[in-house]
């Protein structure tokens, strides 16, 4: 049968599961109400009787008992063997780099995949970029109330060949998605759903080995609570089968994340949650340490999510083409870009229609004239 986590099943897989229990007569009703794995895990006897019209008490009992088994399956092994193999293959694929001594990286791309900047792409070169709500002082503007005026910045370190992300003292924080098990240390902060946690204390034995962690919950429905984590680790989620359950957190998955203990170190990992697990770079109003960015990293600022990518050949050409950078002949004033006044107008911003050269406007996400968001660039033909 299905090999991936039951709480991520679709409607069809739930129906197939009912058939496997020899209760296929209810499959159509489940499909009609779009019962997927997440809803299945929230099922109660009242739901089965009233909403799903399962009149036989023993049938309801059989369904609920088997749901418990599915929950135990998720808790005992958050990632199924086949899924873990795939995750390992993905991790290995990320580790593959060109077989050269050094890969120069003097330009990165940030692609917005969620939020008000959705589908916008930003090229960041060696000069770096600042990100925030204030349009006058930032290279990338995110006009959200939860974004600080100057929220964070990306700078390139020529000596180490790294782009570095720094929270410049924002109120709501800059977050990086936890893609691989994250070593937890004193003061580290992370987010699951609406809940935010901080490693408040680390306990040691007389030989200097770490034995336990204390987590403080400082945001979300369970704020002001603390969690003691010993070497057995714990799981966190909305389901009561977790070691620590935050049922009131609507943005947290049934089984969201886990903390494990291995060779004297505590590790945090996501177990396939919907909204993912995020590391917060610094506390409210505090500047963070510079954090190296890697290709594939995912950054969250407010509700905007940005993916770190390498530029493709067309993006590099648009920025690095000397003919576009250094016009050899004067451009008539009436057809000159109103930003640089040295290149011809060749693109129009959509939807406002103001025209600029592609080189200048490629660095903008709002129109320099009217400040409306640029949803697309329309190439102009003579």
Automatic annotation (TrEMBL):
Keywords: Metal-binding, Zinc, Zinc-finger
Zinc-finger keyword on record: yes
Gene3D superfamilies according to UniProt: 2.60.200.20, Transcription Factor, Ets-1, Zinc/RING finger domain, C3HC4 (zinc finger)
InterPro entries xref list: Cell_Proc_Reg/RNA_Proc, FHA_dom, SAM, SAM/pointed_sf, SMAD_FHA_dom_sf, Znf_RING, Znf_RING/FYVE/PHD, Znf_RING_CS
Record-annotated FHA domain positions: 129-176, 234-278
GO molecular function, one term: zinc ion binding
One Pfam family per UniProt: SAM_1
CDD domains given in the database record: FHA (cd00060)
Alphabetized SUPFAM superfamilies for the sequence: RING/U-box, SAM/Pointed domain, SMAD/FHA domain
Domain RING-type as annotated: residue spans: 337-371
Domain SAM: 9-73
SMART domains: FHA, RING, SAM
Similarity annotation: Belongs to the CHFR family.
Listed name of the protein: E3 ubiquitin-protein ligase CHFR
Organism, as annotated: Blepharisma stoltei
Species classification: Eukaryota, Sar, Alveolata, Ciliophora, Postciliodesmatophora
């Amino acid at each position: 049968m299905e090999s991936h986590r039951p709480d991520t099943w679709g409607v069809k897989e739930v129906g197939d599961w009912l058939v496997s229990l020899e209760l296929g007569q209810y499959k159509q009703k489940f499909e009609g109400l779009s019962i997927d794995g997440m809803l299945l895990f929230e099922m109660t006897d009242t739901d089965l009787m009233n909403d799903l019209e399962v009149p036989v008490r023993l049938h309801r009992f059989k369904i609920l008992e088997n749901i418990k088994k599915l929950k135990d399956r998720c808790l005992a092994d958050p990632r199924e063997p086949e899924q873990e193999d795939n995750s390992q293959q993905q991790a290995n694929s990320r580790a593959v780099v060109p077989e050269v001594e050094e890969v120069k990286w003097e330009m990165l791309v940030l692609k917005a995949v969620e939020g008000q900047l959705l589908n916008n792409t930003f090229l960041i070169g060696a000069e770096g970029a600042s990100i925030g709500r204030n349009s006058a002082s930032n290279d990338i503007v995110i006009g959200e109330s939860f974004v600080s005026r100057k929220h964070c910045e990306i700078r390139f370190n020529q000596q180490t060949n790294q782009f570095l992300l720094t929270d410049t003292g924002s109120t709501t924080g800059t977050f990086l998605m936890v893609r691989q098990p994250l070593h937890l240390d004193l003061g580290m902060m992370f987010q699951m759903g609406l809940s935010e946690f901080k490693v408040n204390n680390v306990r040691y034995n007389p030989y200097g080995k770490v034995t336990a962690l204390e987590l403080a919950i400082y945001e979300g429905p369970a704020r002001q609570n603390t969690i003691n984590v010993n070497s057995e680790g714990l799981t966190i989620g909305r389901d009561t089968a977790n070691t620590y359950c935050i049922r009131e957190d609507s943005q947290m998955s049934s089984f969201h994340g886990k903390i494990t203990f291995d060779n004297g170190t505590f590790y945090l990992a996501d177990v396939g949650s919907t909204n993912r697990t995020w590391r917060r770079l610094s506390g409210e109003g505090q500047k963070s340490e510079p954090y190296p960015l890697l290709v594939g990293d995912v950054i969250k600022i407010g509700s905007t999510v940005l993916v770190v990518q390498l530029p493709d050949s067309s993006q590099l050409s648009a920025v690095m083409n000397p003919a576009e950078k250094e016009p050899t002949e004067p451009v008539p004033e009436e057809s000159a870009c109103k930003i640089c006044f040295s290149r011809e107008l060749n693109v129009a911003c959509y939807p406002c229609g103001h025209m600029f050269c592609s080189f200048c406007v490629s660095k903008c996400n709002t129109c320099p004239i009217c400040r409306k968001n640029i949803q697309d660039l329309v190439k102009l033909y003579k």
